[in-house]
Design brief:
Radius of gyration: 24 Å
Shape: elongated
Distance between the termini: 74 Å
Mean pLDDT: 83
Low-confidence stretches: none
Length: 201
């Protein structure tokens, strides 16, 4: 009888040790998975299943935008206004200071697949999307990380900067309407908002 209890105790102890070892391995595997997770994958999870209202984006210019995700690229996110205004706001990843959301949404994005986002949008860079706005001759509002804003039409976009012809919002880009020109590095941008009816995805 004593030996039976002895062997039962050994089996229980061994089972407990195996369970503890498996839990430790699962925890380490989860840490490794999270260490490979990128911001764009978590933002793409917000696109896959729209989050609760109340998601707001804190940006380098000190502003906060209440918006939902319309698309995610290689280094940018496209946002739609939560208040229902039409148009699209493009935000480069370096301009995002934080994204405020509920805990369930935060946890859901942390469970995003670690694979790279597929599709064309996932490979498009911020410069590529800005060059599309140039091609469309779309009127835009541009907000700098300094907090300064400007409106106009982007004339050209290089690898890391854009040229904008400044004019009043709603007015066409004509020589007589242009009040000035600016060359703006992408690194200085908080966001670019395209006029109503312009889509980039």
């Amino acid at each position: 009888m004593r030996w039976d209890r002895f062997f039962d105790d050994l089996e229980d102890q061994l089972a407990s040790e195996w369970e503890a070892e498996r839990a430790a391995l699962d925890t380490e595997a989860e840490r490794l998975r999270l260490s490979r997770l990128e911001l764009r994958q978590r933002l793409a999870a917000l696109l896959a299943t729209p989050p609760d209202p109340g998601v707001s984006w804190e940006l380098v210019d000190g502003s906060s935008l209440a918006a939902h995700v319309l698309g995610v690229g290689a280094d940018w996110v496209a946002l739609g206004d939560a208040a229902g205004r039409t148009g699209i706001t493009l935000v480069p990843f370096p301009a995002i200071v934080g994204v405020r959301m509920s805990q369930p949404d935060l946890l859901r994005t942390a469970r995003a697949d670690a694979a790279a986002p597929s599709g064309l949008a996932g490979r498009m860079t911020f410069g590529f999307v800005v060059r599309d706005l140039v091609r469309r001759r779309a009127a835009v509002a541009v907000q700098l990380s300094s907090g300064r804003g400007m409106t106009g039409t982007i004339d050209r976009a290089g690898a890391d900067h854009l040229d904008i012809a400044l004019h009043d919002p709603g007015s066409p880009r004509r020589a007589g309407e242009v009040t000035g020109y600016r060359m703006v590095p992408f690194a200085a941008l908080a966001w670019v908002r395209a006029e109503d009816g312009v889509g980039v995805l």
